[in-house]
Each structure stands twice: as C-alpha cells, then as structure tokens.
Design a protein that fits this description.
Number of helices: 7
Strand content: 5-15%
CATH class of one domain: Alpha Beta
Oligomer: single chain
Strand order of the largest sheet: 3-4-6-5
Bound molecules: zinc ion
Distance between the termini: 83 Å
CATH topology of one domain: Muramoyl-pentapeptide Carboxypeptidase, domain 2
Helix content: 25-40%
Length: about 230
C-alpha cells in the first residue's frame, strides 16, 4: 500500500465522482441569481434610485399642477375673513387671525412687535402685483415667479398666510434682512407654538426665493390639508 500522503486527497474518504461536463440543464439554476444580481446592480446604479443625502434638493420637481414652481390655491370666502390690523386692511381667515393675534400679544409681552404687512389677497390683487411689479422691473415671468406667485397660485389667497414685519425695524420689511430682526428670532423660536411655519425656507423644494417674512398657519385640519395636499401633488 501507499503511505497515506501519496493517496490523492479526494480519494481518501470517498470514491472519486465521475467528472461530468456541465450540461445546460445542470447549470440553468445559475441564471436566476445572475439575473437578480444584474437587476439589483441596474436598480442601484440608476440615478433615480440613488438615495438623497442630507443636502437640500437643488432642483424643484414639479408636476403639471404647478405654475413656475407655485401651487394653485383657492380664494378664501369673504365671510371667513377677519381683520388683524386696526384699519382693517390686513385680513386673515378667522382661525389664522385669532392665532396670529394671540401670537402678536405673546411677542409684545416680550418686547417684540410683530406687524402684519399683508394677509389675504384676492386673485385680482395678486394679478396687479404680479404683472405690475414685473412690468416695472422689466422682469421675465420666470424671474418674477421666484419672488411672487402668479395669480391663483399664492398662499395669500387662502387667508392662512401672511407677511410679518418687525415694528422696530421697518427698513427690513419684505427683505431678506428681516432674518436679522428680533421679530424673526422670536418667530423662529415661538411661531410653531401658535401653529405658524415658514413657507419658503432657504433651498425650498419649490425653488422659490427665501422669504423669512412669509408665514402660514397650519393649525386646523383645513389649513393643514390645503398646504400639505397641494405639496404632496408636486
Ligand atoms: Zn407673502
């Protein structure tokens, strides 16, 4: 007999198996994982499936419901509106009006003056604003739409959105510098308690210019649905 080391390893415990040439049928099962792996690789490499990092979305992804990045909104019925200024010029939906007045007095108690600059706007008013200012500045519509909504597409139509200023710093009204005011700092800290939120933060997915002064009320199911359903469609 041979010393154990001379016996080929494969023969030590079991008889050698006949070596079969791979037949198409025998190897067919391999196709399943190959297809699965290829499919997974394709899915993973497709840009659409690449997971979005914490970076803000750079480009707005809008559908046919939007117009130049803005979403359509219904006009609040006149009987739902309530004034939030003594002269009655600025009106909001009564739910938003009550919340705003409560927020305004809470701020005043802490020495901060919140001034309502603009609330409800009709389609007609928005039309004058959109086309009037655009013509004045000689802007193209797409350019104008970054800072103002086309008529029918403004959150101001709903009566739930308003532009807020700082009574102690009127020079910052409707300007990005509003973010340096005590009013803005206060709003950032406290507005959520009164169910107000910033509509157009920096790098918003709608591609609208940053508007630190524009806040909307989302404290009722009606207002919440209005804004979040509109968004979900986009
Ligand atoms: Zn506004």
């Amino acid at each position: 007999m041979y010393p154990i080391d001379e016996i080929p390893e494969a023969r030590r415990q079991s008889p050698p198996r006949p070596h079969l040439a791979p037949s198409p049928r025998r190897w067919a099962w391999l196709g399943i994982p190959v297809v699965a792996v290829a499919g997974a690789a394709w899915w993973w490499l497709t840009p659409a499936s690449t997971p979005v990092a914490s970076e803000p979305k750079p480009a707005p992804t809008m559908t046919s419901v939007d117009l130049l990045g803005h979403l359509p909104y219904p006009e609040a019925p006149a009987q739902d509106l309530q004034a939030v200024t003594a002269d009655g010029r600025v009106k909001l939906h009564r739910d938003a009006a009550q919340a705003f007045l409560a927020m305004q007095s809470a701020a005043r108690a802490e020495g901060v003056i919140l001034v309502p600059l603009s609330g409800f706007r009709s389609r007609q008013q928005q039309e004058e604003l959109f086309y009037g200012v655009k013509a004045e500045r000689g802007q193209q519509v797409a350019e104008r739409a970054k800072v103002s909504a086309p008529p029918g597409y403004s959150e101001h139509h709903t009566g739930y959105a308003l532009d807020v200023g700082d009574g102690q710093q009127p020079g910052t009204h409707l300007h990005e510098s509003f973010e340096q005011t005590a009013a803005f700092a206060w709003l950032q800290k406290r507005a959520a308690q009164f169910h107000f939120e910033l509509s157009f933060p920096r790098h918003n997915p709608q591609g609208i210019s940053y508007e630190p002064w524009h806040w909307r009320f989302v404290g009722t199911p009606a207002s919440l649905e209005l804004f979040y359903r509109a968004r979900a469609r986009s």
